[in-house]
Amino acid sequence: MPRIRSVATVPALNRRTLLAATGAVSLSAGIGLALRPQSPAHAATAAQAPVADSVAHNEGQLATAGPKGPAALAPYTRGTTLGSVATPRSGSTGYRRLGDGAGWKRVVRDELAAARTGRADRRTALAAFVQLTDLHLIDAQHPLRLEYLRSQNKSAWRPQEALTVAGAVSLIERVNSLHGAPATGTPLHFVMTTGDNTDNNSKTELEWFLKVMSGGRITPNSGDPRHYEGVQASNLKTYWQPDAALRDADKQLGFPRIQGFLAAAIREVRSPGLKLPWYSTVGNHDALPLGCYGSRGDSYLTEFAVGGKKLMSLGSAEATTLAKTIKNGSSPKGAAFRDLLRAHAREMRSVTPDEKRAPFTPAEYVRAHLDPAYTGPGPIGHGYSSANLSAGTQYYTFRIAEDVIGVSLDTTDPGGHYEGSIGTAQLRWLEKTLRENADSYVIVFSHHTSKTMRNTHADPAHPAEARHGGGEVVSLLARFSNTLAWVNGHTHKNEIIPHAASGNRSFWEICTASHVDFPQLARVIELVDNKDGTLSLFTTLIESAAPHATDFSDLTQTGLAALCRELSFNAPGARTDLSGTSRDRNTELILKKG
Question: Where is average pLDDT lowest: 352-366, 501-515, 517-531?
Answer without folding.
Answer: 501-515
